[in-house]
Structure to design on (252 residues):
């Protein structure tokens, strides 16, 4: 049974991926800065007959990473680097401490945690690392400089690590979804509808999904299914790749 460590698993994409992967018989280590949120996700998985535990983890802290991994009976076979946050502002008024935090969580933190789990993966002779990037790993939007820079950075990081792990059965890839239907996106829809004075359905069709020819939000099962495939023996030669799950956005 693969042990899957997911960061930022207390809500949103991380929680959705955790629930989906638990349904495939994997043991889930749901980690989050908010331990109570991670515990709620793990408890829900166990209530559904799955296997899960919760872990307090701050990817920006070397001490937190070491302590969290020290609590595990064994290291993860699969690491899903998902923890993230957003801040929207023109660069001239972007607080640099927020800029630094976004990069610390979504890029440096990924390197920190990956570095910590790699020795165990090499020792066991197997490892799968999946970075949850974004459509913004590939294209840009205004006022999201820190987020876009961090997510672009994941692509380069994955390519380097693919080369550094090439002699072991370890792979690293970056998933790049466009809008995923999460509670955060639901709130954005409501906020934009109010600020633009248009119905929520119009926000969805004409603002959010307009760049996606498929015209549909990405669902958790699509991300989890891709992670499950990348974790399988069939994907042993897929490494250093950037997989756009974007409804055709970047095909245009």
């Amino acid at each position: 049974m693969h042990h899957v460590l997911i960061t930022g698993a207390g809500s949103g994409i991380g929680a959705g991926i955790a629930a989906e992967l638990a349904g495939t018989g994997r043991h889930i280590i749901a980690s989050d800065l908010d331990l109570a949120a991670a515990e709620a996700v793990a408890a829900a998985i166990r209530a559904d007959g799955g296997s899960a535990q919760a872990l307090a983890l701050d990817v920006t802290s070397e001490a937190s990473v070491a302590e969290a991994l020290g609590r595990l009976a064994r290291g993860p076979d699969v690491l899903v680097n998902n923890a993230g946050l957003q801040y929207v502002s023109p660069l001239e008024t972007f607080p640099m401490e927020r800029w630094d935090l976004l990069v610390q969580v979504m890029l440096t933190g990924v390197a920190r945690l990956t570095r910590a789990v790699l020795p165990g993966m090499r020792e066991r002779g197997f490892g799968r690392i999946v970075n949850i990037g974004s459509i913004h790993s590939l294209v840009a939007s205004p006022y999201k400089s820190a987020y876009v820079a961090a997510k672009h950075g994941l692509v380069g990081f994955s390519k380097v690590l693919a080369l550094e792990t090439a002699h072991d059965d370890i792979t690293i890839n970056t998933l790049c979804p466009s809008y995923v239907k999460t509670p955060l996106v639901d709130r954005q829809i409501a906020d934009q509808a109010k600020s633009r004075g248009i119905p929520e359905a119009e926000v969805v069709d004409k603002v959010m999904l307009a760049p996606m020819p498929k015209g549909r939000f990405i669902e958790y099962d699509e991300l989890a299914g891709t992670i499950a495939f990348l974790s399988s023996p069939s994907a042993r030669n897929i490494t250093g790749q950037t997989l756009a799950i974007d409804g055709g956005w970047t095909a245009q």
Remarks:
- The radius of gyration is 18 Å.
- The domain at 3-180+219-251 is CATH 3.40.50.720 (Rossmann fold).
- The first helix runs from residue 12 to 22.
- The chain has a mean pLDDT of 96.
